[in-house]
Amino acid sequence: MNKKLKKINAAILIIGNEILSGRTQDKNISFISNWLNSKCGISVKEVRIVQDEEKIIVENILHLSKKFNYVFTTGGIGPTHDDITAESISKAFKVKYEYHLEAYKILEKYYGKKKFNDGRKKMAKMPRGAKLIYNPSSAAPGFITKNVLSLPGVPSILNSMIENCKKYLIKGLKTYSKTVNLYTVESNISRQLGLIQQKYK
Questions:
Q1: Does residue 126 register a pLDDT over 90?
Q2: What is the pLDDT of residue 27?
Q3: What are the C-alpha distances in Å from 91 to residues 55, 88, 96, 164?
Q4: What is the pLDDT of residue 5?
Q5: Per-residue 3-state assignment (H helix, E strand, C coil) for 132-154
Q6: Nearest CA-CA partner of 181 in 173, 191, 189
Q7: Please, what's the b/e burial string for 9-21 (b: 16 or more CB within 10 A of its CB; e: otherwise)?
Q8: pLDDT by residue (tens digit) across 43-88?
Q9: d(Cα 56, Cα 13) in Å, to the nearest integer?
Q10: Which residues contact 175 (CB under 8 A, 6 or more apart)?
């Protein structure tokens, strides 16, 4: 079968205590889902939001990466102590967590040697063998390990990077939709909607 005619799916794993606490409103789910369908023909079939806890991240990465063609993670790849996504993915796939040479050089050049502190160096640590997803906004790259693509949680930065994921993805069938606006209530059209659903599987 032609790769472009396949049904390709994905899951999104949002990582961050700030989302679960309600302090931060997630904007990445709708953006990634729309981009995947409209640009790549990839359907998002599941979304999970988990806390910054290694065991939970590892369990979800292993489960979702086996169940779906691709997994997109957001959050947890920054410079602070609670940014543990890269290390957790390393443990999930049992590969070494180490400095990525190219990522290290990119960040060192961006910040300059004097300002390239330990926190910034941390953003160059990834699972061994990871491929980079380049970042035109703030230099710190995302990465792909097996079928897991890891992106930052900041929406503006994620949005600027998303096109750089394309080269790693197999395209599938796009889903097209049409909106019909009605001035009515759901109960008035529920029967007709049911009939349409039965007719078009």
A1: yes
A2: 96
A3: 9, 5, 8, 25
A4: 56
A5: EECCCCCCCCEEEECCEEEECCC
A6: 189
A7: bbbbbbbbeebee
A8: 999 999 999 999 999 999 999 999 999 999 999 999 999 999 999 9
A9: 11
A10: 37, 41, 43
With contact defined as beta carbons under 8 Å apart, do 174 and 109 qualify? no
Q: What distance in Å separates the CA atoms of residue 78 and residue 173, rounded to the nearest whole number?
A: 34
Smallest CA-to-CA distance from 173 within 2, 1, 7 is with 7
- For residue 110 the two structure tokens come to 């961006």
Domains and CATH numbers, the chain: 3-199 (3.40.980.10)
pLDDT beyond 90 at 178: no
Angle, helix 85-92 to helix 54-67, in steps of 10 degrees: 60
Residue with tokens 């180490």: 98
